[in-house]
Amino acid sequence: MVHVAVATRAFRRYSTYRAATLAGIFTNSVFGVIYSFAYLALWSANPTAGGYDAQDAVTYVWLGQALLMTIALWGGGATDDLAERIRTGDVAIDLYRPVGIVGWYLASDLGRAAYHLLTRGVGPTLIGFLVFHISLPSSPLTALAFAVSLVLAVVVSFAIRFLVASSAFWLLDQSGVKVMSGAFAIFFSGMMLPLVLFPGWLGTLARALPWASYVQVPADVWLGKHTGVDLLAALGFQVLWAVVLLVACQGVLRLATRKVVVQGG
Predict the structure, then answer these.
(1) Which of 68, 122, 176, 243 counts the most CB atoms within 10 A of its CB?
(2) Dist CA 187 CA 7 (whole Å)
(3) Exposure of 203 by Cβ count < 10 A (0-12 exposed, 13-18 middle, 19+ buried)?
(4) Residue 157: closest CA among 124, 197, 117
(5) pLDDT, tens only, 163-213
(6) Which PANTHER family match (predicted)?
(7) CA atoms 202, 208, 210, 212: torsion sign
(8) Distance, CA of 235 to CA of 218 (rounded, Å)
C-alpha cells in the first residue's frame, strides 16, 4: 500500500540522523531533570495542585519531554517539506499524484512520529523511570488507550501544521504563521504547564482547544485520570478535533488549488 511505503520511507529518512537523535535525547533528559525538580518544589507547596500528586507531576514532565518531538510541538516534519514545495512550485507535482496530498503527507508524518517515539520518546521515558521512578500505565487497557491517544495527538498536530504550511499558498512563506502557531502550541498543549493548573475560564478554554490533544490528554490517559465513559470522552475529544481539522485541510487545499500563486517557478 502506497501510504505504508511513504511512512516507511519517512521512518528511514529520520533514522539517518543518529547524532541529532542522541543529542536530542540528552537535551530532553536534561530539561526533564530541571523541570522535575521545579515541579517537585511546586507540589511540595501544594501537594494536590490540579488533582495531581508529586509523582503524577514528575511523570507528566517526562511524558512531555517524550512527546515533544513525536507530536512535533514546534512544527517540522512532513508539513515543512510541503511548505517548501509550495514556495518553489514543486507542489504542482504533488497535485498530479494519484493519491491525495493530505493522505500522502499524513502518512509521511506518521512515519516520522514513529521514529521519534521509539527514540526520543522511549529514551527520556526510561531515564525518567530510572531516576525519578515515574508512574507507568496501571493496566494493559490504559497502555492501549494511551497508544490510541498518542496516534490521535499526532494526527491533530499534523492537521494544524498542514494548515500552517498551506498558508504559503497565499503568503509564499509560512514562517510567521509557524512561529505564532508554535507559541499557541507551547502554551495551550500543556507543555509549558499542565492545563489542570490553569484557573477559571482560561483553564476551560485551554482544555477545549485542539492543542490540549497534544500533551494534556495523552498524559492524563497515561496517568489513569480518565477511566470508563470519561476515557471514551477524552478520546472522542481528540477524534472530533482530528476530523474537524482534516476536513479543514481538504477545504483549504481545494481553495488553494483554484488560485495558486507560485514563487520561483
Answers:
(1) 68
(2) 29
(3) middle
(4) 117
(5) 999 888 888 777 888 888 889 999 999 998 999 999 999 999 999 999 999
(6) INTEGRAL MEMBRANE PROTEIN, SLR1174 PROTEIN-RELATED
(7) positive
(8) 9
